[in-house]
């Protein structure tokens, strides 16, 4: 199954990232939720008539994100391991969840980084020897 062509990819990616940003682990969602979020205008832009026509594309994008370590793909409540090499090997319903620290940007917010650096600096000062 090939990666979706433009303009399908950016449209699906926008909706996929939105769902990932609103579902905190261990919450999951079905890839069909992404496809069902597309408006009728977006469906036309993608060259399809129903959200079901986009399911292969959504699943491919989810799998690409899995390969980059951004999401986990689950079946029957279990994370699919590295032995499942391709989305084509996945039969039946699957669920998606972001990995810890992904999508919400919590590890990338300046305030969060500042707090970490401040804590690290404080720990370093405590450990310093003073003359």
Description:
The chain is mainly alpha-helical. The chain has five helices and three strands, in the order H-H-H-H-E-E-E-H. It has a three-stranded antiparallel β-sheet, covered by helices on one side. Helix 1 packs across helix 4. About 18% of the residues have low confidence.
What is the number of helical segments per DSSP (H or I, 4+ residues)? 5
List low-pLDDT spans: 103-126
Major sheet size, sense and barrel closure = 3 strands, antiparallel
Q: Give me the strand/helix succession.
A: HHHHEEEH
What is the number of beta strands? Answer: 3
Please outline what is shown here.
The protein is mostly helical and 131 residues long.
How is this fold's topology laid out?
Elements: H1 8-22, H2 31-36, H3 40-46, H4 55-67, E1 71-75, E2 78-79, E3 95-98, H5 110-127
Antiparallel strand pairs: 1-2, 1-3
What key phrases describe this protein's structure?
131 residues; 8% strand; 3 strands; globular; three-stranded antiparallel sheet; 5 helices; mainly alpha
């Amino acid at each position: 199954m090939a990666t979706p062509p433009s303009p399908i990819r950016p449209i699906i990616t926008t909706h996929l990232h939105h769902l990932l940003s609103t579902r905190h682990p261990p919450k999951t969602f079905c890839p069909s939720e992404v496809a069902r979020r597309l408006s009728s205008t977006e469906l036309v832009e993608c060259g399809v008539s129903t959200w079901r026509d986009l399911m292969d594309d959504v699943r491919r994008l989810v799998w690409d994100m899995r390969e980059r370590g951004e999401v986990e793909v689950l079946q029957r409540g279990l994370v699919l391991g590295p032995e499942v090499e391709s989305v084509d090997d996945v039969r039946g319903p699957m669920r998606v969840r972001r990995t810890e620290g992904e999508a919400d940007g919590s590890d990338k917010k300046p305030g969060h980084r500042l707090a970490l650096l401040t804590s690290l600096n404080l720990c370093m000062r405590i450990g310093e020897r003073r003359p």
